[in-house]
C-alpha cells in the first residue's frame, strides 16, 4: 500500500509541477522588448526606462508585490524591477536576468531571452503556495561599460540583501537561453578538450557554477535535470575559466551566496553575440520554452518540499 501511495503522490506532484510555457507569449515579449524605436542601453535612458516599465506592468498581472529598486549613476536614475512570490520572512531564492544591451543592437538572446524567462516564470508562479520566497529580478546595467563595477544592477541588489541580512538560499542568473543548433561544430569551448566530453553540437542548455557550487546549486541542478525538459549539461570549473562568471551571478558570489548561471554558452555558440544580428528570428523558441519549464519545475520542487 505504501508503495502505491508513494507512486500516486509522485505522479500527482509531477502533474502539478508540469510547466506549460507559452511560446506565443514568448514571441510577443521578445518583439516588445527588442523591436523598439531605439536600443535599450544607457545612452538611450528613456528606452531603457520604457522596458523597465514594460517588465513591471507585466509582473503586476501575476503578483501584488512588484517594485523598482532605483539607484543613481552619474546623476542618472536606473532601475531594477523586483517581483516577489511568498511571504517577506521566508528564506529567499533570487532568479535574475538583465534587460540592458551592449551598444546599438536588439539583444534578443543577450538578454531579452532571460528577461522573457522571468516574465513567463511570473505567470507560472501566480497563485502557487510556496514555503520559500522567490524574487524575480530584472537587472539593469549588466553590460559594458558597467560590467564588473558597483554600478551593475545585480551588484546593487546583492549588496542590499547583504546589508539587510536577508536569508538567501541561492541565486540563478538566466543569461542567454534562446540559441541552439544541431549542426556539427556549432559549439566551441574555452578549452578545446571539453568538446570530447560535451560534444560539438550546440543542442543543450548549461548549468554553470564553480567547483565550490554549494548546496543550493547542487539541489537546483538535480531538480532541473530530473525534469528532463531539455538536454542539459553541467559546467563546474574554477572561476578563472573564461566565461564562467560573465553574468550577474558573479556579484552574488562576491557577497558569499550560492549562485549559478543558466546559459546557452553565449559567444561559445551564438556568433551573434553583441552584434546587430542578435535578433529574435535567430532564436529557437521551442527549446527556449523548455528551458523555462525546467527552471519552473526545479523552483517548485525547492519551494514545496
Q: How would you briefly describe this protein structure?
A:
This protein has 305 residues and is an alpha/beta fold. The chain is built from 9 helices and 8 strands.
Task: Tell me what you see in this structure.
This protein has 305 residues and is α/β, with parallel strands linked by helices. The chain has one domain: Aminopeptidase, CATH 3.40.630. It has helices at residues 2-17, 23-34, 45-59, 108-125, 153-163, 194-198, 214-227, 249-254, 285-303; strands at residues 66-73, 76-85, 92-98, 133-139, 168-174, 205-209, 232-236, 259-263. Strands 1-2-4-3-5-8-6-7 form an 8-stranded mixed beta sheet, sandwiched between helices. Helix 7 (214-227) links the parallel strand 6 (205-209) and strand 7 (232-236). Helix 2 crosses helix 4. Residues 3-16 have low confidence and may be disordered.
Give structural attributes:
single chain; 305 residues; alpha/beta; Aminopeptidase; 9 helices; disordered N terminus
Topology:
Blueprint (H helix, E strand, L loop, with lengths): L1 H16 L5 H12 L10 H15 L6 E8 L2 E10 L6 E7 L9 H18 L7 E7 L13 H11 L4 E7 L19 H5 L6 E5 L4 H14 L4 E5 L12 H6 L4 E5 L21 H19 L2
Helix pairs in contact: 2-4, 4-9, 7-9
Number of strands: 8
CA distance, first residue to last residue? 22 Å
The whole-number mean of residue pLDDT values reads 93
| Overall 3D shape | globular
Whole-number count of domains:
1
- Tally of helical runs: 9
Largest sheet: number of strands, sense, barrel closure: 8 strands, mixed
What amount of the residues lies in strands? 15-25%
Structural class given helices, strands, pairing? alpha/beta
CATH superfamily: Zn peptidases
What is the CATH topology descriptor? Aminopeptidase
Radius of gyration: 18 Å
**Element-by-element helix/strand order:** HHHEEEHEHEHEHEHEH
Order of strands across the widest beta sheet? Answer: 1-2-4-3-5-8-6-7
Helix coverage percent: 25-40%
CATH architecture: 3-Layer(aba) Sandwich
Instruction: Kindly provide the name of the CATH class.
Output: Alpha Beta
